[in-house]
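Write out the 3D structure for:
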Amino acid sequence: MPEYVWGRNAILETLRSSRQVKRILIAKGQRDAPIIAAILHEAERRQIPIETLPRQRLDDLSQGAVHQGCIAVVEARKYATLEQIIDYAHDRNEDPFLLILDAIQDVNNLGSLLRSAEAAGVHGVIIPMHRAAEVNATVVKTSAGASEHLLVAQETNLTRTIEWLKKQNIWVIGLDGEAKTDYDQADLTGALALVVGNEGKGISRLVSEHCDLLIKLPMHGHINSLNAAVAGSIALYEALRQRSRRNKQD
């Protein structure tokens, strides 16, 4: 079965990534838009076939999703291994910086978190193989194509994964509203895996028990929690701030 990517920014970033794009499908009357021109230029540079089709055909392929007049037919996603993620960090001569998502189920939250992770310099993201959202076309679009520049691993058991990461001397820190330590009081430098939990229940009990430390975002309003993507993004950027400051001092 072919896989699709839709949305103009998502397709342009996919074309700029290592993922194989088999064909570009353009709705009739869309070729004059500036970003469509950039997509067509990149596709022609990579010698990727371009087809012009009725918009209804693109509507059918995207099953009604907002495709913005453009769809890419792509190879099936290849998930990374944990070893590949760690090797990528070491090849960059950087301490591993990972994001673990504990059963994120909303594809829009997953896409937003992948976008934040890529922007914050995360080397790889780990998601569960079961009972969680996968990286599909909606996730790629929501991430504005950032997912195509990230190594994403699918693991069957997050607690075993965490224990394996600890053996690689990676500190595992979970984001938990009941934690004692504020997020900006924890040391988020060095080899780090940040864990963000499910939209409704947060981090599962088993996963939280295997974390080295739990941190929280302070809440001063009437509500007691933030959207998972928002909370995760704040913590990622605090880690980036600390890591950037340390690099300047070294």
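Residues 228-249 form the longest helix (22 residues).
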